[in-house]
Design goal:
Layout lengths: L17 E6 L14 H9 L18 E3 L10 H17 L3 E6 L4 H12 L4 E5 L19 H6 L4 E6 L4 H8 L4 E4 H5 L6 H6 L4 E8 L21 H14 E9 L9 H17 L4
Parallel strand pairs: 1-2, 1-3, 3-8, 4-5, 4-7, 5-6, 7-8
Helix pairs in contact: 1-9, 2-3, 8-9
Length: 286
């Protein structure tokens, strides 16, 4: 399967602007597992999208979208899996492509950020998520999905948005000024006419975007392993990403934590359309 089910003329690696990297991995997932099935669900749903983007008024796929084979899960452990992701993303970034990673659990994002920092040393990260993911370690590993933001914050600037769940350890880490963290309530209460500008105010230059789908409200996105009430709407999510794309050069992104529910395809379709819309914000004019 290739993303969008697009014709071969627009899938060649050499000419593609975007390279999709499926990572079917959920070893450290807690509460509900199943995000290992997320990449295949997104790819399948993407084949049923209209390829004309009604917001952007263009056919984004004409910029070229190549889909790699899935990154094979590494049974040795989370550290090895993160490194496997790093090596795969690095090869794509070095070639000047935009890596688009489909998860899988959120732990894999650290490997992608490591790779992007090798290519873009001044890169920063925008994390859209319900959970702070700032534990120093969880269930015996520092490479848990619950620790991914902590690892990222150790190598580059990190801005979070949509947060509405954290431990006291994470709250203290935020209060000490290690990351800029904006709650979902800040967005939903619309504090100021341009809340998205406030969130993106600390972002500039090269950016990596990581989207945990539980940033959305469970009424919109029920298919996640750890759903949290009080999340963002589809429109608010797009407004924030659109502003980030205007201010920064988004060099790569991921969409993670889709845990498909059998028989419920709307969340899968949402995830695939989100991926395509972000590509559209980044794509060269066709």
């Amino acid at each position: 399967m290739n993303f969008g089910g697009i014709e071969q003329a627009f899938t060649a690696y050499k000419k593609a602007q975007f390279v999709v990297i499926p990572v079917p991995y959920d070893l450290t997932s807690t509460y509900q597992s199943g995000s290992r099935r997320g990449p295949s669900a997104i790819l399948e749903a993407s084949g049923n999208m209209e390829l004309y983007d009604e917001e952007l008024r263009k056919e984004t796929y004409r910029s070229g979208i190549h889909t790699l084979p899935p990154v094979e899960p590494d049974a040795r452990g989370p550290a090895e899996m993160v490194d496997s992701v790093r090596r795969t993303v690095l090869r794509v970034a070095v070639d000047g492509k935009v890596p688009v990673m489909l998860g899988g659990e959120h732990s894999i994002s650290f490997g992608a950020v490591q790779a992007m920092k090798e290519v873009y040393p001044e890169i920063s990260v925008l994390q859209l998520d319900a959970h702070a993911d700032l534990r120093d370690a969880y269930q015996g590993t520092p490479y848990s999905h619950a620790s991914v933001a902590r690892r990222i914050s150790g190598i580059c600037p990190l801005v979070q948005a949509g947060i509405r769940s954290m431990s006291i350890e994470e709250a203290k880490f935020i209060s000490e000024g290690h990351v800029r963290s904006h709650s979902a309530d800040f967005i939903l209460d619309k504090q100021g006419a341009s809340w998205w500008e406030t969130i993106c105010g600390d972002l500039r230059g090269d950016l990596y975007l990581t989207v945990d789908l539980d940033v959305l409200d469970p009424a919109v996105m029920p298919s996640t392993g750890t759903p949290e009430p009080g999340g963002l709407s589809w429109r608010d999510l797009l407004a924030l990403i659109r502003e980030a794309a205007k201010r920064c050069r988004i060099r790569g992104f991921d969409v993670v934590e889709l845990a498909p529910i059998p028989g419920l395809v709307a969340p899968d379709f949402l995830a695939s359309k989100l991926v395509y819309r972000i590509m559209g914000y980044l794509s060269i004019k066709s």
